[in-house]
């Protein structure tokens, strides 16, 4: 999935609150969305301000065949993936 499709899909998930969070160490620092320190609307704003040059992909470290999307913009790091129908956030932090 390319940047434009991923952007559209993750924004829709955030807007409808249809997302979850991957369990991980240091979640209180690495996933500020999960901790409530940043709102879904603020993450949407960050993602909307990003461009294709801010986006990259890599394979998930544990789930074979799952592509992880990474958006780095305005000093924020947003990392997520899709396992239909779910959108799962790994990291949202500065």
From TrEMBL:
<protein>
    <recommendedName>
        <fullName>DUF4258 domain-containing protein</fullName>
    </recommendedName>
</protein>
């Amino acid at each position: 999935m390319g940047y434009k499709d991923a952007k559209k899909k993750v924004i829709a998930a955030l807007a409808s609150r249809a997302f979850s969070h991957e369990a991980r160490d240091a979640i209180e620092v690495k996933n500020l969305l999960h901790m409530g320190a940043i709102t879904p609307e603020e993450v949407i704003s960050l993602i909307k301000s990003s461009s294709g040059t801010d986006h990259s992909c890599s394979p998930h470290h544990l789930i074979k065949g799952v592509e992880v999307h990474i958006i780095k913009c305005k000093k924020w790091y947003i990392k997520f993936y899709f396992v239909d129908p779910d959108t799962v956030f790994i990291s949202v932090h500065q």
